[in-house]
Fold this protein.
Amino acid sequence: MDEDRRLADRALEVVVARLLQGGVLLAATIVTAGSLLFLFRHAGDPTHYRSFHGEPHALRSVHAIVAGALTGDGRAVTQLGLLVLIATPVARVALAGLGFALERDRLYAGVALLVLGLLAFGLSGL
Amino acid sequence: MTTLELTAVVASGSFVAGALGALTGLGGGVVLVPLLVLGLGVDVRYAVGASLVSVIATSSGAAAAYVREGYTNMRIGMLLEIATTTGALAGASLATRVSGAVVAGIFGVVLLWSALVPAPHLHPDAAARPGRLTKWLRLTGTVPELDGERPYAAENVPAGFALMSLAGVLSGLLGIGSGAVKVLAMDRAMKLPFKVSTTTSNFMIGVTAAASAGVYLSRGYVDPVLAAPVTLGVLAGSLLGARFLVRAPTHALRWVFRVVLLALAAEMIRSAWTGRI
């Protein structure tokens, strides 16, 4: 049983590693595309980061960001890439939780669920 | 400064920060915010937002490699993530309530601490006799060594949990990974093997940052045009830095990095104090 669990843990670790790698790669690709798209049109624009204004609402929620990205707006595409990046560790917790559940490790499936709940609370404003 | 100029400067600065962070093991995120705030006059809130997002990229990128090596303890990491994410949510909500100068001041103090904290040491004779809490939570594991697998068990779990909450608060408030505090909790308090502490700490950083990133994004702190060069630059730098880790003069680099951290800490505290930020 112990040996079985260790093998299962090891398999889970490999899947988790793949997920993290894939998520970061996908996010970096989208962010690069969005930045190029924006720079192509706005390379010469002045910047305005000395004082804080807060981002427009179009770049603050999942719904608005996806809608903007679909119209080809460079900043929205970049922000979508950043959303994918934020989603990567969340997916990792969900996947690990599922793995623990499959191993019938109720304690740690519960722990994963609790962490997911805390993450959902943080992301609920999006 | 035009958008193109800013992108180029921020991307190269972040690249160097990421490479140095990976080479010294001190983490690059901690110099990013001072770089943006002191070097380019970026508002603290934008700087913290961009840095926080980049932390997720470097942590996940490195974790993918570490997890494969088999040192990361996913159960210990997951359990302590309860503490770090709770702390991160509190830290992010605190960040939206205090002024930029306060954030900059606290940042300076944390920089000062990370410049002075000694490198974690090894404790080869850490007892593998788990206490009751450790047994119930199964906070044990083995590390691969030359002469086979060596068992270890976590000690002082409540103290580790408390330190992890603090790490979470700092991460959420300052937009850093606070890997140094996480390693402190696992290496010093919980007496876990060094490799397990560093890789599990790195594994947790992404989840911790994701908890507060949602708050930052919905409050408008994450600007895509600023966050993109920071994230891509740090990610590329840290991946390259990790690749050359074996050949680099780590000891000398650590000293250089410490001096840089000290200087940045002094400048952050001074700017916050005199109200320049």
